[in-house]
Every structure is written in C-alpha cells, then in structure tokens.
Amino acid sequence: MAGSLLGQDSGSTAAVTVIKRALELESESRYPQALVCYQEGIDLLLQVLKGTKDVTRKSNLRKRISDYMDRAENIKKYLDQEKEAGKYHKQIKIEENATGFSYESLFQEYLNETVTEVWIEDPYIRHTHQLYNFLRFCEMLVKGQCKVKTIHLLTSLDEGSGKEQQSSGLEEIRESLRNHGVQLELEYSSLIHDREIRLSRFSLGYCDFDLRPCHETTVDIFHNKHTKKI
C-alpha cells in the first residue's frame, strides 16, 4: 500500500493521498492525469524524506520513491510516443461553478520554447469581458517560456452597436502586442461556431473560462504532427 511505510503527519498523509490517486488514474489508463499526480506525490515524498531521521524508514522511502519515479518515467515515455504518433488526446472535464481553471493551469504545460505561433478561433471576441479574456490569454503567451511571434485570431464581426468597441479593442491589443514583439493577425468570418486554439504543436478545443466560476464544459487537447494554418 502507498501509505504502509509513511507516518501520520500532514506531509505523509498528503503524499499518500496523491500517490493513491496516481495509482487509481494509472489503472484507469488516464495517463496524463496520473503523471501529474505521480510528480506531485514524489515531490511530497521527497519532503517527507528530508524530515525523516530513522535510517530504516529513510531507506524504505527511497525505494518507494524510486519505484514511483520509474512508474512516472514509463508513463512519460508512453505519452511522448503517443504525441510523436499524433495520437495524444487529453480531456479535462470542468464542472458547473468550478474554479481554479485559469489559462495558466490549462495551457502552461504546452507553452514551451517550440511554440512560435498560435491560432485562435473564437466567434465571440466582441464585448468588454470577451476582449479582456483574449487579452489575458495574450499576456500569458507573452510572459511564458514560449517564443510566440505571431498570434492569428479568427473571430466574427460584430455588425451591431458593439462594432466600434470590438474594432478599437482589438486594435489596442494589436498595438500592445506589437510593442512586445508579437504580431496579431486578425481575420473575420461569419461561419465559425466552435472555439479552438492551435499551437505550433498542439490543438486545444476550449470554452470560455477564467478564475471566476466556470460553466460546465469539456476541454479536449489533441497533439497534431502538422498544425494547419487559418
């Protein structure tokens, strides 16, 4: 059992909980989530190890940590193979009124140095809160590890009273991005209905969410070997 060699202090309890969850997820073939739990659980176990004085317990902990590291490494290798074969699919289910799903928590792990372009399709970048959501996403790209040079936005044109607000808001964002060395390419279409983000390597289907409570939705993440351009 995951907790058989650990004590009852809060650090040990947290480690046991996370490792048990990792084992459950692995048994259900939910490998991306299992990998995250293994990594978190291993970090917690290392903290427990640092505070352990008993020699025998330390030895047992090291062995247990090594075993979980091997499991995590095997999962990582499997996921890397799936990504290379273009078969990677990760699904995140967001319950009604759930919080904690910021843009960073959803996308940060995919924004490495290989990402240089981002394609966004969203039919509703019109009103103030929608423009701010788009701005927050752009800020994340600019501040992250990725080296994004171009952002392509395909959205629908507001033909009503909000047309001027949409136009001026997007132009302000374009100018701000230009000051940070990023080009914003804008296109309009009345035919798009779904929301999608494509990175240089990944494709992420998403709905409108932020730090505020979310509407119930599902996020599907696919790995594409060749990302099409809009």
From TrEMBL:
SUPFAM superfamilies: MIT domain (SSF116846). GO terms for cellular component: late endosome membrane; midbody. It comes from the Eukaryota. The keyword Phosphoprotein does not apply. CDD domains: MIT_1, MIT_C. It is a peripheral membrane protein. One of its GO terms (biological process) is midbody abscission. SMART domains: MIT (SM00745). Keywords: Cell cycle, Cell division, Endosome, Membrane, Transport. InterPro entries: MIT_dom, MIT_dom_sf, MIT_domain_contain_protein1, MITD1_C, MITD1_C_sf, MITD1_N. It is found in: Endosome membrane; Late endosome membrane; Midbody. Residues 8-86 form the MIT domain. Homodimer. Interacts (via MIT domain) with CHMP1A, CHMP1B, CHMP2A and IST1. PANTHER family: MIT DOMAIN-CONTAINING PROTEIN 1. This is MIT domain-containing protein 1. It comes from Balaenoptera physalus.
